Amino acid sequence: MVKGNYSRTFLRVGYHKIAEIPAGACNLSIQETRKSRNYLALQTKSGISIINGNWVIDRPGTYSALGTQLIYRRPNEIRSRNGESITARGPLTENINLYLIYQQPSPSVHYEYNVPLNTQPAAEPGTPSDFLLAPLAETVGPSYADERVDEDDVSNNHIIKETFHPKQASSDPSVDSEPRTIYTWTKSGHTECSMTCGTGKHHVFWKCVDRDSHMTVPMDLCDPATEPTNQEEDCNKQPCPVYWDVGEWSECSRRCGPGTQQRQVICQQVTHVHLNGTETSVPVAPELCGSSDRPVTKSTCQLKICSQWEIQSEWSPCSVPCGVGQRSREVVCLSNQGDVDDDEECNMNLKPETLQNCDMGVCARSWFTSLWSQRCSAECGRGNKTRTVVCLIDHVTDLPLDGCEGDRPSEVTSCDSGPCQNELEWYTGPWGECSAECGNGTQTRSLACIFTNSGQKEVVDQVKCSSLSKPVTAQLCRLKPCGVQWYVTEWSACSRSCDGGFRVREVRCLADNITPSDRCDPSSVPDSQEECNKQPCLDEINPSCSDQYHNCMVVVQARLCIYPYYKGVCCASCTRAQKTYPSSFQRNHIRR
Prior knowledge:
Elements: E1 2-7, E2 14-21, E3 26-32, E4 39-44, E5 49-51, E6 61-65, E7 68-73, E8 85-88, E9 96-102, E10 108-114, E11 137-138, E12 183-190, E13 200-210, E14 216-217, E15 232-235, E16 242-246, E17 259-262, E18 265-273, E19 279-283, E20 298-301, E21 308-311, E22 324-328, E23 331-334, E24 340-341, E25 355-359, E26 366-369, E27 382-386, E28 389-393, E29 397-399, E30 412-416, E31 423-428, E32 440-444, E33 447-453, E34 456-460, E35 474-478, E36 485-488, E37 501-504, E38 507-510, E39 529-532, H1 552-557, H2 564-569, H3 571-580, H4 584-591
Parallel strand pairs: 2-11
Antiparallel strand pairs: 1-10, 2-9, 3-8, 3-10, 4-5, 4-9, 6-7, 7-8, 12-13, 13-14, 13-15, 16-18, 17-20, 18-19, 21-23, 22-25, 23-24, 26-28, 27-30, 28-29, 31-33, 32-35, 33-34, 36-38, 37-39
C-alpha cells in the first residue's frame, strides 16, 4: 500500500500537482483532512480531465473512467467538518495525476492506494498539457518507506507498504460475494514530538482497518461520525533538568588596591526544548539544584596598586607685591613605579593644596589712562575717539576698575571730521507686520540709497549703492503658537486617465510640536478625496492586441495580468482591466 500526506502554508492560486497514481492501482482513497474552499482534481497522464479540470468545478457523483468508477464527494452540510474525497475500487487502466486547486491557505490532503507487488509507481511525474493556460507547478509525488522524503516538500508524510488484502477490492466491481465486514479507526502513526522533555505534543494519524483482519482499507469505508477527534497527544512527559545559571562578574569595587566583585547565581529548570535546539527556562527553588555544588557569588579582586600624591615643590612667591594675592606649588600623582599618572588615578579627596591666598599689605591705588585714539570713528561729520582706563597699584598691578579712589575718567570723547561730501549710504525703514498671525511668518522693510553732499541728503537709484553691503529686507517672525491645526499632503495622481477617476491625499491633525492630536475642529477637516479626469475615454487599444483564449476573464479576476505571459495571451482583457482598477498607491489610501 502507498500512502502520502500533502500540506502547504501558502501557494499560488491555481492547480498544484500532488502525486501521480500508476496504472493497476486499486482501493484508491483521496481525502481532504479538513473542510476548506480548495478542490481536488484528476487528470489522465495524456491530459484528459476527469474531475474538476479546466477551471470548471464538477458536481459530486460517480464518474466512469480508466476502467473503474470514481466516486467524488463534497459535503455541503454547514455542520460537516469533512473535506472533499475521491474513492475508486480500481484497478486503473492508466496513470492518473492528482491535483489540488488552491484557494485557501494551509491545504491538507491524505491519499493512499494499493498496487500489485510487480507494479512500481512512476518516479518522475508527467507534465500536463492543455490543462491551463501555462504549465502547472508540480509539488511532490508519492514515495515508499525505503526512500528518503524531503521534509521541506512533504510535512508529516508517513508512507508504508502492506500486503494486499483480498477483501479490499476486486478487479470486477460487480462481484461482491464476501459478507459485509465491520471497519474501525486505528492509529497509523504520529509526527515528531514538539519537545524532548516537559510534556510536548505530536499529531496523531488515523487509518481505517478491517476489524477482523486488521488490514488497512479505504478511509471512506469507516463511519465519519466515529472518526477520533483527538488529533494531538502528549509526549515526552519526563521533567526537564535543572541547572545553575551563572551570570557575569561585576566590575571590581575599587579601581586600585583590594576590592570585591559579585555575580548572580540562579537555579533554573528547562521547561521547553524546541526542535530547533533552543530552550526556555524558568527560575526554581535553589534546593532543587543542590547547595553543595553551588558556584560562588563573591570574589576578591585588585586591578592594580594605588598611586599616591607627592609634593614636588615649595610654595611660590605671592602673586602681588601688595594686597591679597595667591601662591602655588606643584603636586603630582605618582604610580608605585615612580611614573606620573593622571590625577584621577589618585584619591582626589586626599590631594594636598596647590593654591593658597597670601596678603602682602595695603596698596596705593591710582587711575591711569592711555592716549586718545588718533582717528575719529566717522570719516566725515561727528564721531568718537576712545582711550583705555585702568586702576593701577604701584604702577604694576591691574586691579578691578572700582578699586581706585575718585571718579573714573571718561573713555569716550566726541570728534568732528568735517562736512561729508559725495557719500552714498543704505537707509532702512522699520520692520513691517508679520505675515502670519500665528506660527512661522515673514516681515519685510523698505530700503533706500541716500546720497549725502554738504549736509544735504537725496534718495537716488539703488544701483548706485550696489558696491556697498546691502542690508537684509526680509526675516522670519513668529508672534505666537498656532495650536492644533489640519495638515495635508500633495494630491496623488488621478486613478484614471479618463471617464472620471479620483485622487487622494493624507489629512492629519497635528499640534505645535508636529505630534498627532485629536483636538482639531472636525467641521473644518479638508477633503481627502476628489474627482478628476472626467473627460470621456477614447478607445486606444492596439488592434493587434487581442485575447488568444476564451477564458481570459479568469486571468483578470485572478490578478495574473502582472505576469508577461498572461498579459500577452490576454492582451485586450488585461488592457481594459488596467484602466478599470485603481493603482496600488490609491488602493492603499482607500483601505486607510
